[in-house]
Amino acid sequence: MCYDNDARPPDLPAAGGAAHGQDLVLTSADGTQFAAYTARPEQPGGAQIVILPDVRGLHGFYKALALRFAEAGVEAIALDYFGRTAGLTARDDSFEFMPHVQKLTVPTVFQDVQAAIAHLHSSAPESQSIFTVGFCLGGSLSLLTGTQEFGQRGTIAFYAGLSRQMAGSDKTVLELSTNEKHPVLGLFGGADQGIPVEQVHTLDQNLDTAGVEHEVVIYEGAPHSFFDRKAVDFAEASTNAWERILNFISSYK
């Protein structure tokens, strides 16, 4: 598990503007309804982002994260993965997520991402640049989404599981990273026991092979899930990660 119920994203490195969030239900191309949460800035900055959660799906951390993005001027939508198998039930501590994670497939996640992107397009009076950001499982899915042409401008991944091979895919995330089509920002903890640093270096090399602009950052001593307001020992890394994310979006929007 990546984030627990008490986890919350770190504050922005600078004061943000007003933002408004709401729960909603989207419908994927196969007719599946799934939960999402959208946050809109009072002063849009020309970019939008799809948030791909960890294995628990759409829980409080990601709703709060959507609001932080909106406060920074980036309209955000966080989606839930489990509409096909768990319906629209809550993703609180009582939710047994792993049986549903095991039923995920890459093609259906892509359908949900496309539905989220379509919602972002429909919510803005003018075309804005789309990005994805994901955490743990969501980081892996963000990288996989970056191998597709969904109209996005860039891919951001926190502690993406690189050795993960999901149903509907014939290769690992690391192997498929040579197919990335968009700029990539990868953020990893140097003390993450589940993601060897050697794999992160290989990701960097694979992105060279893919020919996309990229930055892969390893925060020395930082564990998995370091990007958390409660992780005061890693507040400096979290602030730096925010700065890199916002600079990345500003550079490619």
From TrEMBL:
Transmembrane segments: none annotated. Pfam families: DLH (PF01738). Residues 34-252 form the Dienelactone hydrolase domain. One of its GO terms (molecular function) is hydrolase activity. Gene3D superfamilies: alpha/beta hydrolase. InterPro entries: AB_hydrolase_fold (IPR029058), Dienelactn_hydro (IPR002925), Dienelactone_hydrolase-like (IPR051049). It comes from the Bacteria. This is Carboxymethylenebutenolidase.
